[in-house]
Amino acid sequence: MTMSPAFDEMWADGSTIRRPYQNIKEWLDSEDRPSLKAKRRDANDLFRLTGITFNVYGSSEGEERLIPFDIIPRVITSNEWNKICKGLEQRVKAINAFLYDIYHSQEIVKAGIIPLEMLKNNPAFLFQMIGVNPPGQIYTHISGVDIIRTEENEFYVLEDNIRTPSGVSYMLENRETMLQMFPELFTNNRVQPIQNYPQELLNSLKNTLPETAENKPTVCLLTPGLYNSAYFEHAFLADQMGIELVQGNDLKVVDGFLAMRTTQGHQKVDVLYKRLDDDFLDPLNFNEKSSLGVPGLFDVYRKGRVTIANAPGTGIADDKAIYSFMPEIVQFYSGEFPLLQNVPTWRCAIKHQLQYVLDNINELVIKQVHGSGGYGMLIGPTATKKDISNFKKKLIATPENYIAQPTLSLSTVPIFTNKGFAPRHVDLRPFVQMSPKKINIVPGGLTRVAMSKGSLVVNSSQGGGTKDTWVLEN
Amino acid sequence: MLGNTANGLFWTYRFLERAENMSRLIETGQRIALTRLSSSDEQWLYVMQTSAVSEEYKKQYSIVEKEAAVDWMLRHPENKSSILSSITSARQNAKMVRHALTTDVWEAINGSFLDIQKLLKNKTREGDLPLILRTIKQSAAVVRGATYGTMLRNEEYDFCRLGTFIERADNTARILDVKYYVLLPSAKAVGTSIDNVQWETILRSVSAYGGFRLEYGHEAGPSDIAKFLILDKRMPRSLIYCCDIIKLHLLSLCSAYRNKPPSLLQIIHLQNRFLTHDIDAVFKFGLHDFLQKMISLFGNLSNQIEIDYRFYE
Question: Cβ B110–A50 below 8 Å, yes or no?
């Protein structure tokens, strides 16, 4: 199968430069290659010095790697951005309403839109959350929604990251690095600022307090620790927000409240920004083998005495099987047509859809329903015959574990390689903050880029890189 | 502030101080080896004893020779107090408490770690030693400068300084104790000036060679060295100076927390009992016994701080 050439965000049809990239082109024309190479080296040194590294699972403990950073910014116009924002707001509100519903009266099941088995048999559906009222009725304090572009005006949601969305530190540090490396770019372009993300997040969390919170609420960030792949981000955000970075052993339930061990004794915690999987949160209520969590934390939560962001049990909303229902979910709760499209998705659990997938496997991307990080997926057009026949066996054995999507041609943006400029596929993860008072979206997001030619895999765990993402002022 | 954060800051600065002290010892050893015709590889054993790493060394090597000794102190992974181990531990702790450090301090520590790790990746050639030691010393100076210039004078700072000065006090006491007998008044007959390899080693290991000569002159004897390193308040590595700073920061914590924990009472007791007399009283008490007592009191104090400020559950 031959794929149609991807939409290039700089060159569109290949000959004329698109308006938003005009200045970028002029800048690139004015720079010589050796100095750009030197700048790229400087940028890497800067990342190492700041400690913006991630730990790779499965590699030796403590090994730190840099995420490849490309110096050419990705540019979005304010019109494009406003459209994306409206779609995001609609989608995230619907997801929050969906979560409240499925953990309460399950109207969406009664309406026959989502089959009960989809919830019941899903490990991401937390029975413990049934009937629990999170403070402010907020489940999705932070969402990272992966958006891809295929044409000038075609944007699709590829994935919703709701359980523990990550990557925002790269968005912020990419900008800081660009400001240091190429200050003149920001003099000559009107780029909307993103630096207030941490402060906005803190405000947003403080707008979602439990009723027991007093005057000066305490917010802290719960990390699994130094060896977690996103540890840098945890430390970075805690620092930027001016809150404590805690691990399970810093926390304890004292007199029915969550408290952290300070140098002066235990102090009540009102909001826990958790960067730990639900399963590890509380050995008394979830995985009893977890040593990372806090015994009894969930009991405090159930009593409404602490806010946990995001709420436990939100993982069900970014489950890939639920994803295929997202257009219906948005419509059911908002009463409107979805502004952002889903990528068409086949559910292998349904017999005739499985047959279609098996027949057309060469053209499809097959994903594990409960997987994340780009692990355990098959990209039909680039897979070997052996991979395909192996995958077919898996599909037939456990079809309910898989969904399939067409191989969409992700848009490309140039990167700077050793051989010059070359187009590479990108996606975009904007971050949405939600509180009972408002929804806030910083203008930008994390642009992930597949660094090798033709690759569609942008995940950092699979060698993907990142770019600074500009949303221009009008 | 979290107990765990206090813990991380305290140990970050202890390990940084330890790395710096170790580099000073290696420098001293190297200098003496190069400038003394009579010196032999055996003197490296003394250098290692001074830093309390000789016992472990003997388990790994059957003879004392320069190259192995330097490698042991610089970068051997089995030596938990080697420069590389110390700076790695310092950085690990700093990473844990990054949010409590200023960006300048974090980048100074992380940058030092990256530089030193690179320099110590392979076995060191003798010709590279000066550059390596200079880099370590400069790194320490940059971290200290960033700390001094950018950290708020709050609890966080108190715990950083407590870590530095407890490590330093312990280090000075150990350096003195290893060769305490060359400092006894009765040893005076050995030499007429400070031109004595033993004394020089002691003074250089605490960066006090020039300062001592300046303040006490060439006529000074060994007991003056003891006085300088124990009771001279102008000397920033003397026991009395370190204890003053420790008390200062414990008092600052007390006023922030409005309490008087046992650690404060311990340092006050230590000062009153052991640092208010003159050097003759110390000799009368017994220099070795005195230093042993100090080392054990510093250990107790460190433990008490961990308890008072809830470093652990």
Answer: yes
Indicate the burial class of A221 (C-beta count within 10 angstroms; 0-12, 13-18, 19 or more).
buried
Do B98 and A51 lie within an 8 Å CB cutoff? Answer: yes
- Cβ contact, residue pair B2, A226, below 8 Å: no
pLDDT at A246 (0 to 100): 97
How close does chain A come to B310, measured CA to CA in Å?
Answer: 5
Q: Which residues of B touch A236 (CB under 8 A)?
A: 98
* Measured distance CA(A453)–CA(A348) in Å, rounded: 30
**What pLDDT sits at residue A2?**
39
From the CA atom positions of chain A, what is the Rg in Å? 22
CB-based contact A239 B313, cutoff 8 Å? no
Nearest to B98 among A235, A247, A263 (CB): A235
SS3 state of residue B226: helix
Task: Pick the more confident residue, A95 or B28.
Answer: A95
Of A235, A239, A244, Cβ closest to residue B2: A244
Query: For residue A1, what pLDDT is reported?
Result: 34
CB-based contacts of A359: which residues, under 8 Å, 6+ apart? none
Q: Give Cα A367 to chain centroid, integer Å.
A: 17
pLDDT at residue B92 in the model = 94
Please give the angle made by the CA atoms of A248, A254 and A260, to the nearest 5 degrees: 40
Contacts of A198 in chain B (CB under 8 A): none
**Residue with the larger pLDDT of the pair A462 and B95:** B95
The pLDDT of residue B249: 98
- Chain B contacts of A51, Cβ < 8 Å? 95, 98, 106, 110
* Chain A environment of B257 (Cβ under 8 Å): 263-264
Q: Which residues of A touch B155 (CB under 8 A)?
A: 263
Rounded Cα–Cα distance for residues A187 and A384 (Å): 48
Query: Between chains, do A263 and B6 touch, taking CB under 8 Å as contact?
Result: yes
Burial class (CB in 10 A: 0-12, 13-18, 19+), A13: exposed
Give this prediction's pTM: 0.90
CA angle B210, B213, B217 (to 5 degrees): 165
Q: What ipTM was reported for this prediction? A: 0.85
Q: Which residues of chain A lie closer than 8 angstroms to B92, CB-CB?
A: 226
A303: left (phi > 0), else alpha (psi -120 to 50), else beta?
A: alpha
Count of CB atoms situated within 10 Å of the CB of A411 = 24
Cβ–Cβ gap B309/A265 under 8 Å? no
| Mean predicted lDDT score pLDDT of chain A | 92
Average pLDDT, chain B: 90
d(CA B204, CA B28): 6
State the Cα–Cα distance between residues A370 and B139, nearest whole angstrom: 47
User: Helix, strand or coil for residue A310?
Assistant: coil
pLDDT at A372: 58
B160 touches B12 (CB < 8 A): yes
pLDDT tens digit sequence for A294-352 = 999 999 999 999 999 999 999 999 988 899 999 999 999 999 999 999 999 998 888 99
Which member of A239, A244, A261 has the closest CB to residue B310?
A: A261
CB contact under 8 A, B313 and A51: no
Alpha-carbon distance of A56 to A459, in angstroms, equals: 12
Question: What residues of A are in contact with residue B309 (Cβ under 8 Å)?
Answer: 263
Mean pLDDT of B236-247: 97
Q: How far is A45 from chain B (nearest CA, A)?
A: 10
Distances (CA, A) of A307 to A140, A204, B57, B157: 12, 12, 53, 31
Across the beta sheet with A257-262, what order do the strands follow? A251-254, A257-262, A265-268
DSSP sequence for A345-374: -EETTSHHHHHHHHHTGGGEEEEETT--TT
Q: How far is A258 from chain B (nearest CA, A)?
A: 14
Asked whether the beta carbons of B274 and B292 are under 8 A apart, the reply is no
